[in-house]
Automatic annotation (TrEMBL):
Name recorded for this polypeptide: Xanthine and CO dehydrogenases maturation factor, XdhC/CoxF family
Taxonomic path: Bacteria, Pseudomonadati, Thermodesulfobacteriota, Desulfomonilia, Desulfomonilales
Organism: Desulfomonile tiedjei (strain ATCC 49306 / DSM 6799 / DCB-1)
PANTHER family referenced in this protein's UniProt entry, alphabetically: ALDEHYDE OXIDOREDUCTASE MOLYBDENUM COFACTOR ASSEMBLY PROTEIN, XANTHINE DEHYDROGENASE SUBUNIT A-RELATED
Start and end residues of each XdhC- CoxI domain: 14-77
Domain of life where this protein originates: Bacteria
InterPro entries referenced in this protein's UniProt entry, alphabetically: MoCofactor_Util/Proc, NAD(P)-bd_dom_sf, XdhC_CoxI, XdhC_Rossmann_dom
All copies of domain XdhC Rossmann, residue ranges: 200-343
Cited Pfam families: XdhC_C (PF13478), XdhC_CoxI (PF02625)
Amino acid sequence: MTAIWKAAAEQFEQVQDFVVATILGVRGSSPRHVGTRFLVKKDGGTVGTIGGGLFESQVQEFALHALNTGTSHRAHFSFQGKDAQSVDMICGGEADVLIEFISADDIKKQEIFRKVLEIKKERASGYFFTTLQTNPGSTGGAINHLLLDGAGKKWGGFSGEESALEAMPAQRLLKPAQLLDVSDLSSPVFLEWLHPTGTVYIFGAGHVGICVAHLAAYVDFKVVVLDDRSEFACIEKCPDADEIIVLDDYESALSKLQINEDCYLVIVTRGHAHDKTVLAQCLNTPAAYIGMIGSRRKTQLIFELLMKQGFSRESIERVHAPIGLPIGGETPQEIAVSIIAQMIQIRNKKDSPLTTKSVCMG
């Protein structure tokens, strides 16, 4: 999604109007989730995808119409039969999409969009509100935004924003994107929670660790690489890492880390003893994912030793070991692919269901 905001900034710089299409809600199966964006340029070029096929083609037609008329639109799509199959909605489905016309002269939106890009690049957090027209199918009317960064600083705004802020759910109930019913407003407000999509801590900067770091950055994890060897834990070896930590030793590998439910722990050190030492510390965290490299025989031996030290079987069963999805990988690159695929699988389950209230479909 960072590519969308980057493309928007480029369109502003080139003084070109553009359209951003955002999925507000879905019913039935859908190839992309709520909050997915698709940018359409005046020359018909696009950035991103909302699923391809007939659905994307129709949205692009709406976007080009919006560019020609200078108006925004809230469109409702319903697919059945062959149309459903063409957009991967095999059992039929519906989608509600905001087609937002953006004028290159809109200084306020330019500032907001650039700040969103900055938040994304810095892997910071924030809250992005969008006002909507009352009903799907309506045309015209201003689309306004309010952006709050993690410190509470505001950009933009709209009438009734105080009520929208009060309608925000508690953080534990926040979804990456959802519609809010706001008592003082005639239409819902679309809220997006901007936050890093997980932090992966990679213990071990060897061949596998470096490959995992590269792929993790590519799929938008924040990447932290840790090793007790400075000649390995360095920017030359780990160019894709957001942070590199040279450990004094593996016995205190997690002592200065703030591990929460959005953290993914990958144990790929240079030896079984170090793996066991790090794993014992990882088991005491609420991390979303704990994976350890090694054969079944090696991992079983480590598990037995840890249970003798007092760790429960339930705790041990949290560990993905042998690490990664079973794709038969042998090279560091192949093993890294299997690890990242498993982490994405956990992340996607963790963030689902990405649905909105039924009001979004009209």
